[in-house]
Amino acid sequence: MSSLYTQLAQVYEAMYHTFMDYPSEYHFYSPIFQKHNKKNLLEIGSGTGNLAGIFHKNGYQYIGMDLSEEMIAIAQKKIQGVDFIQGDMRSFQLKAPVTGILMPGRTISYLKHNSEVKDTFTSAYKNLQSGGIFCFDFIDAERFLPAIIRDKNVNHEASYQGIDYLRKGVWTLDLEQGMTVNWVANYYKKVAGEWVALGEDTSILRTFLKEEIRLLLELSGFMLKEILDKTSYAYPTYVMVAEKL
Ligand SMILES: C[S@@+](CC[C@H](N)C(=O)[O-])C[C@H]1O[C@@H](n2cnc3c(N)ncnc32)[C@H](O)[C@@H]1O
User: Fold this and answer.
1) Average pLDDT of the chain?
2) 177 with 135, same domain?
3) What's the rounded Cα separation, in Å, for the pair 40 and 177?
4) What distance in angstroms lies between residue 66's CA and the mean position of ligand 1's atoms?
5) Which of 71-78's residues contact partners 24+ apart within 8 Å by CB, and which partners?
6) What is the tally of structural domains in the chain?
7) According to the model, what pLDDT value does residue 19 have?
8) Is the pLDDT of residue 16 over 90?
9) Are residues 184 and 213 part of one domain?
């Protein structure tokens, strides 16, 4: 797994508050579940629990699931009232099915092979009640890949609890096995006016075309209800809303 979610989990926690506007994320996703009257949710890839905490405060019954023990440990310490569990999106089994599953933050981009995407959709299907809603975002290949050819460097500074952090990232297009990109990011914190290296995170991220996601959902028994356009801090994404038939 990416070192950002293991050795660098505390750095993620410090910096991502400033990238991601979690209240806006809540205001985007919550109406989707409200519209379908679903209040009993699982979040896949719940990270350090920032979105989970807001859903919980707003009366949702919420489970957060993540592969990383380090991310779960931070979430559990910070958020009370949410059940954070360790699980792999490709093969998980909840104690009881939920009425909605949310997988935000382009978490699907860690699934490089179609078989892994299909396994994830099948796991989501099995853990939803009939009529349940599955909602997730993905990086739109059509808009994102041309953009990184034009500009492959991304630097970001953030301050958290009086400490300054810097992330220097570089995207490289890698079409060897599909529409993927290599991401290399170096993290630093400022000590006595100097940037001191904290670690490097390298990952391969998959971007998708709408049509392949549509097909994989259909092959997993879902009916696609809506496709929503959503711009995040770094990527153009689409959000899929699908129903378990
Ligand atoms: C981009 S972060 C999003 C975190 C959170 N939703 C947020 O918005 O801050 C992706 C999360 O997915 C988790 N993850 C990666 N692969 C996973 C897998 N196979 N199963 C479950 N979680 C996974 C990572 O540990 C990380 O916390």
Assistant:
1) 95
2) no
3) 37
4) 6
5) 71/5, 71/9, 71/12, 71/46, 71/47, 72/46, 73/9, 74/9, 74/10, 74/13, 74/48, 74/49, 75/46, 75/47, 75/48, 75/49, 76/49, 78/48, 78/49, 78/53
6) 2
7) 81
8) no
9) no
- The DSSP bridge pattern shows strands 222-231 and 236-244 to be antiparallel
**Global pTM?**
0.96
Indicate whether 47 pLDDT > 90: yes
pLDDT in tens, 92-111: 999 999 999 999 999 999 99
Q: How far is the CA of 194 from the centre of ligand 1 (A)?
A: 31
The residue contributing the CA closest to ligand 1 atom 6 is: 46
67 & 116 share domain: yes
- Same domain, yes or no: 134 and 19: yes
Regarding whether 133 and 40 lie in a shared domain, the answer is: yes
Indicate whether 45 and 91 sit together in one domain: yes
pLDDT at 52: 98
What is the 162 CA–ligand 1 centroid distance (Å)? 26
Question: Which residue's alpha carbon is nearest to atom 25 within ligand 1?
Answer: 68
CATH code of residue 157: 3.10.450
Structure confidence at residue 235 as a pLDDT band (50, 70, 90):
confident
- Is it the case that residue 23 has pLDDT exceeding 90? yes
- Whether 135 and 147 map to the same domain: the answer is no
| Any atom of ligand 1 within 6 Å of the Cβ of 47 | yes
- Shared domain for 83 and 100, answered yes or no, is yes
For residue 175, give its domain range: 142-206
Q: Give the pLDDT confidence score for residue 241 in this predicted structure.
A: 98
